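Work package 3, deliverable 3.1, input record:
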Amino acid sequence: MTINWQVHGMPDRPAFSESLSMLRRRTQAAARWLAKAHESAVVWMFSLGVGIVLLGGLVQAGYRVERQALQHQQVAPLLGELVQQVEAGLAFGATFTPDSLIQLRLDQALAQGLHLEAIDIVGLDGRVLLSTQGERLGARPAPDGSPAVPLTDATGQPAGHVLARAPRAEQDLRILSPGTWGFALVLPLLALALALRAVWRGKPAGVAGTRRRPWLCTSRVWWLGFAVLTVAAGLLLAGAAGRLQRHLDDAAAAPVKRAAVVLALRIGQAVDAGVPLEQLQGLNTMLRQRLREAPGVAEIRLHDRQGAPLAVQAGPVRADDTVPAEVAPVLHRGAPVAEVRVQRTPPRTPWLLLDILGVASALVAVGVLLIGHELVLQAQPGGAVTHGAGALWQRLTGRGLTVTAGAGAADDAPIAEPMAGVLVGAALALAAAALMRSDASLALAALAGPALVVLAACVAWRWGRALAAHRLLSGALIATAWCLVQG
Amino acid sequence: MTRPWGRAMAAACLVVAHAVTPALPDAAPDAPTIAMVLPREEQLIEVGFREGLRQRGLAPRFELVRWSGRAEDQEALVARLRALAPDLIYTWGAATTLAVAGPAEGDAGRYIRDRPVVFTDVDDPVASKLLAQWARPGRNLTGVPRRAPLAAQWAALRSYRPFRRIGVIVNPAEPDTRQAREAMGLLAQQQGLVLVDATLPLDAHGEPDAQALPALVRDVAARGAEVLYLGDSAFLAHTHRGTVTRLAREAGLATFCVAEGAVRQSGCLFGLFSEAGNTGRFAGYKAWQILRGGQRVQDVPIETLQRFSLVINMPVARELALYPPMAVLQAAEVVAPPLVPRRQGP
């Protein structure tokens, strides 16, 4: 009885009964909303998740390309000079023994401050013949993408290669920790929760079977998704840019430091050979050559011990006085007799990478949202509900469902389509710039976004939204032409 | 009657002392046999030759055959080699190679023509008459000339200083120096340089007159030569190299030498050479091409090393105040042999 009273009637406590009834109605309404929403929600979550993974992969690929290019840019001149010295040593009859002249050259190269872990000479059989790390002799280094330059002996026959290995930490090309990745992937869930809450508060339950606007296609949800992807892309780009900036600083400083060390070493060798410091022949030519070849070097000076200048060469770019000069002592039999001072130019950040990645990221976000938008339109036609992934797939691929959304649905993302067009154009222009820089990987990264937008246009066309597809493609073409003309 | 005995005596007295080098421990039973014909003990170049073969996994049996250098012993030498029947013959120097393989136009019966011969240290196989022409030897002969090509020598010479007037002395008793003079004349014409040449007078016996050297060197210097090129002249670059380089220093002339010893052990300023070990290794590679690489000796080109050693004599540079440029120092070996002191006064 007590139970029945509590359930069926509470004459002496009507407020509680109404509350319970309201709660029950709201719960039922929520269940209906959730039942209707869950497929669309899954579609949105999937779209946003895929978008973030795509963005992460895009930024990671761009970062990897740029990082490896920086590593190569730093190490290539060193290896080139080292190979010349080793080959000259071989021409003099030097051999790959730890007490040879070649070993000395390897050690000198390692001391040039390029954050290298070791420099090896690897023979034709793949074994290390000589190394700056004695314990590596005889080892077989596994190919890991470390910069290597082939070596020939005095007869012109291959003699192996010189291999420069960066420390393991430097070889790590990941830009974000798994935790940050996880956080970026939680963002879609958060967005969905916010969207559902907004819809729950703002819209009463509709009448089942009526043809109405799919609520998860509203501009509000669209913009929320765009915001989520933008934040995720921003996080990823900031992570990449932050790490890359450190490497860029190192890369900018390395040639300057190396110029000072190498010049001091060479002048020291000449003095050791018996050439008086004041009679160094071809010194200015060598300084000019170094100035020309080493990026970021503004001025090179050679001073004697008393500070009197012996030679000065300056490039066209004024030196950056805010950065202290790199100073390397010239040693004659271990005692300093002069010093080389190298002043650097103001740092210059290559923005091309971030431009391409930024535009490409925005484009991926727009492309993902457009595709998600189309999928949601199909997932929730007129408020009808289907259950299960199989049913959803059939709906999405079924022939009978060509026009499923009302006319208003096409206007749900009025800004997205022209914006996508502009972004496609910008991305294509940047891809062309990347190609001109002979950077195919970056060009491909920049083309990922346009590909997604074209895919979205195809999806729209497939499901009868010819107008949307037409606007997407024509916007993209016009914007591309404009960007190329401007470029 | 005496002729067979004479031959026997020649064979017995032949300084072609035959020493059978014990087979290497890892020489396979079917390993090829290489006869090494040398007028001297084995040196770095032969070590390089063996290493060149070993690097490619070939461990042949070596038969060391000593050659006296005398023309009368040539017949016995060839007989000895025919008896050994090696798979390949290694020779050092032009005279030894000529004794074994003979001149290109020589009597085939007197020389080894049916076995491959690989030589080292022959400066110019054409001038030595081993070959009719460089391009297609067309005979059982290949090898590694030791001397750097003339163009490479001049490039090295002009990397030291942009010399424009190059002095050269021709010894009429050595035809090679005349040929070299002609080649240098052509090169000088191509490069817009001036050749300042002088010819050694011959004495009553047809021998070059060493007494004329001081006047000759001074004459070359007085005519504006900036550097004296000492080519393949045994008289100038070997026998009298100390005198010639001292005279050049006294006249303020730089010297560029083709003979390595003139820089390393005498007073020549600098020179461009093939390192002996590398030359031997390259010859070893050519032997391997014939023995294991399936190539006919006729098809293996005669070629020099691709990289040479620039050697600078720093005491001479200091004395002439003609220090090497920084760029040259990076690629050069600097040596400091004791110098013959210059004579004081005129």
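Chain A touches chain B through 29 residues (CB under 8 Å).
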